[in-house]
């Protein structure tokens, strides 16, 4: 975290806001996924984050809403897990069972290579150790299920897979955390997340539902994993940040574990950033989707979240697939669980460049700048360095004449097209209370205001 403003990241000496449209987390565990074209595409679009799963969780093939899903290896040999397979057959995926006491060197070679290649491209890796299992059939695919290993571990129900119910299973969890931490100890482009969506629960008729927050049993287990990670990294000169996935809703969370630096939310809104600003840690919208396949909902969600003070944004981009690692599986089928594609990635790159054009460490949300003129049904989001610079996002409407209240001075105003990055109009603005008219726009537009230096 940045020492002067811990709501933002510090990466390689620079204040950083993490913005991306990333694949469905199987880049390491799926040997059929060629991650180099994927990382090249992120770099080409100016994006700086990827999220990947560590391996205990995988998915089945054939999920129609997740076409050619990277989290669903097609063959046993395609699944690269942290543990070595044995010669004993009978695993649920048709391959041999795993030995949870034996690491697979090929997995750790691939993991380290992925992190290193991301680092060469200026991309931060969020490595998620575990995930909610969601369904019994998915738990039965995991090496940690008793049917898939020779160690007699994993006899609990899928709803207890990430609790303290089975001590032998918890010990395997802790050993994985420590091993990964040891292997990746030198990476400077890495932070860890303990578990993905721990608030998932069984829903009606065998479906899926979500609590607002994780259960006490889950939180106890998460604290145990956090302790294991902190202990594993204790001898290291450089420690990595720890993220916690707290909710799939826009809620104010209770005081986080003191070792947790990054507060992750899924499918929420800009309210997550506002409600949790008091914890003075990066708040990240770490997965989005469910809003159709068009670009606009996710672009607008990203701009609103970052301009509300968020520290990062990750769109789940379903156009990165095992056969189209460059993100060209487009257009997506209408029932896909999310969106993505080259145009959205380009638009998110514009957002990243826009926000990095400011001294973001000196900025904070400001609700006093825009005094009126917001179109009906629209919203504004403002980050300000009072008297120096203002980043304003107008979400909704097609034209606006904003009433602004600025400290004395002269300012240059630039209206920025969120789809192209072009300056649609530039104006000079005087301090005090006055109005500023936008050019016509579709859906949304951004405004960059900077104080003009006066001659000596």
Notable traits:
2 domains, eight-stranded parallel β-sheet, TIM Barrel, alpha/beta, 21% helix
Short précis:
With 456 residues, the protein is α/β, with parallel strands linked by helices.
Report the biggest beta sheet as strand number plus sense, adding barrel if it closes: 8 strands, parallel
Tell me the structural class: alpha/beta
What CATH architecture of the largest domain do you see?
Answer: Alpha-Beta Barrel
What amount of the residues lies in strands?
A: 25-35%
CATH superfamily assignment of the largest domain?
Glycosidases
Please tell me the total number of domains: 2
> Tally the helices: what do you get?
8
H/E topology pattern: EEEHEEEHEHHEEEHEEHEHEHEEEEEEE
CATH class of the largest domain: Alpha Beta
Task: Going across the biggest sheet, name each strand in turn.
Answer: 3-14-13-12-11-8-7-4
pLDDT under 50 segments (min length 5)? none
Oligomer: single chain
- Measured as a percent range, the helix fraction is 10-25%
* Spatial separation of the terminal alpha carbons: 37 Å
Instruction: Give the number of DSSP strands.
Output: 21
């Amino acid at each position: 975290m940045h020492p002067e403003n811990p709501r933002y990241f510090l990466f390689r000496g620079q204040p950083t806001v993490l913005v991306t449209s990333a694949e469905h987390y199987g880049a390491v565990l799926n040997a059929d996924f060629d991650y180099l074209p994927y990382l090249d595409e992120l770099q080409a679009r100016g994006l700086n984050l990827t999220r990947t799963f560590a391996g205990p969780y995988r998915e089945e093939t054939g999920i129609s809403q997740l076409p050619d899903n990277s989290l669903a290896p097609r063959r046993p040999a395609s699944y690269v897990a942290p543990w070595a397979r044995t010669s004993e057959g009978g695993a649920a995926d048709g391959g041999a069972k795993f030995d949870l006491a034996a690491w697979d060197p090929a997995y750790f070679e691939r993991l380290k290579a992925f992190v290193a290649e991301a680092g060469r491209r200026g991309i931060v890796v969020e490595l998620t150790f575990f995930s909610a299992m969601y369904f019994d059939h998915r738990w039965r695919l995991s090496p940690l299920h008793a049917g898939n290993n020779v160690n007699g571990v994993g006899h609990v129900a899928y709803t207890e897979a990430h609790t303290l119910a089975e001590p032998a299973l918890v010990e395997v969890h802790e050993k994985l955390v420590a091993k990964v931490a040891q292997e990746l100890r030198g990476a400077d482009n890495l932070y860890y997340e303990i578990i993905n969506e721990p608030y998932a629960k069984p829903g009606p008729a065998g479906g899926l539902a979500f609590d607002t927050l994780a259960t006490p049993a889950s939180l106890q287990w998460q604290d145990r994993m956090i302790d294991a990670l902190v202990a594993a990294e204790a001898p290291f000169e450089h420690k990595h940040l720890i993220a916690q996935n707290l909710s799939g809703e826009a809620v104010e969370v209770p005081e986080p574990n003191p070792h947790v630096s990054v507060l992750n939310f899924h499918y929420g809104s800009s309210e997550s950033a506002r409600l949790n600003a008091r914890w003075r840690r990066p708040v990240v919208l770490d997965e989005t989707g469910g809003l159709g396949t068009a670009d606009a909902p996710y672009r607008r969600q990203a701009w609103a979240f970052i301009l509300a003070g968020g520290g990062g944004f990750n769109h789940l981009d379903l156009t990165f697939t095992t056969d189209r690692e460059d993100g060209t599986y487009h257009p997506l089928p209408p029932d896909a669980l999310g969106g993505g594609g080259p145009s959205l990635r380009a638009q998110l790159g514009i957002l990243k460049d826009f926000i990095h054009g400011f001294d973001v460490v000196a900025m904070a949300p400001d609700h006093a700048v825009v005094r009126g003129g917001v179109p009906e049904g629209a919203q504004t989001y403002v980050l300000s360095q009072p008297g120096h610079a203002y980043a304003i996002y107008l979400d909704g409407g097609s034209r606006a004449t904003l009433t602004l209240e600025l400290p004395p001075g002269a300012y240059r105003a630039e209206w920025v097209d969120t789809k192209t990055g072009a300056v649609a109009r530039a104006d000079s603005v005087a301090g005090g209370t006055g109005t500023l008219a936008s050019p016509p726009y579709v859906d949304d537009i951004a405004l960059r205001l900077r104080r003009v230096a006066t001659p000596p």
